Amino acid sequence: MNITQSTTTLSNGVKMPWLGLGVFKVEEGSELVNAVKTAIQHGYRSVDTAAIYANESGVGQGIREGIQATGITREDLFITSKVWNSDLGYDSTLKAYEASLQKLGLEYLDLYLIHWPVQGKYKDAWRALETLYKEGRVKAIGVSNFQIHHLEDLLKDAEIKPMINQVEYHPMLTQKELHAYCKQQDIQLEAWSPLMQGQLLDNPVLQEIADNHRKSIAQIILRWDLQNEVITIPKSIKENRIVENASVFDFELTPAEMQQIDNLNQNRRVGPDPDNFDF
């Protein structure tokens, strides 16, 4: 199946692509603009950024150039951004949303997320997201880096359930309990850093599976995400990698291979621990 047709339906009925382009740590400039444009030209329809990445303007430029180059419309794309910790709060989150839209040059976002569960702040921010959603300013709302206890706490007061929880997720950090909880709550899990920032690309178990399928290790990991029903947003600025990362819809891992990959779990993070993050 081509990635342009491959979507999941979120709890509110909105369709979101299973695979998108992440732009974490890609600085503003022509490299970023070209990466976004190239991804769109190769069939990507989802781009994930955040206020703290300080690259929303370049992403917006890449989106405009991608639309121009392909003849698709804004409505064909799924654009995500996130509110940063220092802006959590009701009014400040609403302002942060407007600032992100302005930088991106867009009239709305498809998905807006609370970036980290800063204790004592995320509930006010969530009320702001609910307001944006009710006003039709954003198509879907969600959270990022929330553990089960954060979600339980949020759901006590939330009028609207998060549609997405974007978390660090890769074969060394499978987060099985969190995934099961999100499924039970109809919250779609999404993976950031799916390739563990490149740390898994010489793993012998993954190499053997990759050889079996004549695919790269990156493709095996991304396929594992998809078969686990986890949305994935690998980052790349190189055209060959952007194309390679999307070529994961023409093969399937066996249950035994899926289990082998699950067995690599060490509960190991490359990013901060949401419970011990110095905000």
UniProtKB/TrEMBL annotation:
<feature type="binding site">
    <location>
        <position position="115"/>
    </location>
    <ligand>
        <name>substrate</name>
    </ligand>
</feature>
<dbReference type="InterPro" id="IPR036812">
    <property type="entry name" value="NAD(P)_OxRdtase_dom_sf"/>
</dbReference>
<protein>
    <submittedName>
        <fullName>Aldo/keto reductase</fullName>
    </submittedName>
</protein>
<comment type="similarity">
    <text>Belongs to the aldo/keto reductase family.</text>
</comment>
<feature type="active site" description="Proton donor">
    <location>
        <position position="53"/>
    </location>
</feature>
<dbReference type="InterPro" id="IPR018170">
    <property type="entry name" value="Aldo/ket_reductase_CS"/>
</dbReference>
<dbReference type="InterPro" id="IPR044500">
    <property type="entry name" value="AKR5G"/>
</dbReference>
<dbReference type="InterPro" id="IPR023210">
    <property type="entry name" value="NADP_OxRdtase_dom"/>
</dbReference>
<feature type="domain" description="NADP-dependent oxidoreductase">
    <location>
        <begin position="30"/>
        <end position="265"/>
    </location>
</feature>
<dbReference type="Pfam" id="PF00248">
    <property type="entry name" value="Aldo_ket_red"/>
</dbReference>
<keyword id="KW-0560">Oxidoreductase</keyword>
<dbReference type="InterPro" id="IPR020471">
    <property type="entry name" value="AKR"/>
</dbReference>
<feature type="site" description="Lowers pKa of active site Tyr">
    <location>
        <position position="82"/>
    </location>
</feature>
<dbReference type="GO" id="GO:0016491">
    <property type="term" value="F:oxidoreductase activity"/>
</dbReference>
